[in-house]
Amino acid sequence: MTVALWCILIALCLPLLCALIAKVSSGRFGMKDNHDPRAFLDNLEGLPRRAHSAQQNSFETFPAFAAAVLVADIVGNAEQVTQDVLGVMYITSRLLYIICYLADWAALRSLVWLAGLGIIISFFVVSV
User: Fold this and answer.
1) What is the distance, to the nearest Å, from the Cα of residue 110 to the centroid of all Cα atoms in its chain?
2) Which pLDDT tens digit goes with each residue over 12-61?
3) Which of 50, 64, 112, 116 reaches 20 to 30 Å from 32, CA-CA?
4) How many Å apart are CA 128 and CA 120, to the nearest integer?
5) How would residue 76 be classed by pLDDT, with cut points 50, 70 and 90?
6) Residue span of the structural domain in which 88 resides
7) How many beta carbons lie within 10 A of that of residue 40, not counting itself?
């Protein structure tokens, strides 16, 4: 399996990391709260709330990234090393995005999100 394809799995796991941060950093998540975790997460504030928001955004961007990697792989016009580098760049952008969200750096977070979108689009461009 290629590095780019492994990046799909990594991108799938990133929202779970954000959920863990949201729940643990709240300091009050227990088994009782796990009966209705969405209601629990919707009532968070501060860092836990930002981690939850990063989780939601990670789930929202995942389908586009996975599709872009698969299209590039199927079409096969792009060099594999290019696909792999783009995959690692996307994962790096998502990690930076999560860090920016947790740190409440809104402007930088938006720029990093835009870079991630550019990387997704790049998969299609290099596949032509």
Assistant:
1) 13
2) 999 999 999 998 888 776 555 567 777 777 788 999 999 999 999 999 99
3) 50
4) 14
5) confident
6) 3-126
7) 20
Q: Which CATH number belongs to the domain containing residue 7 in this structure?
A: 1.20.120.550
Which of helix, strand or coil describes residue 93? helix
Q: Token digits for 10?
A: 């990594």
d(C-alpha 84, C-alpha 81), whole Å: 5
pLDDT at 32: 58
Closest CA to 89 of 2, 1, 3: 3
Count of domains for the chain: 1
Closest of 7, 101, 95 to residue 52, by C-alpha: 101
Q: In terms of Cα–Cα distance, which of 46, 45, 22, 50 is closest to 34? A: 22
Query: What is the model's pTM?
Result: 0.92
Contact predicate 2/80, CB 8 Å: yes
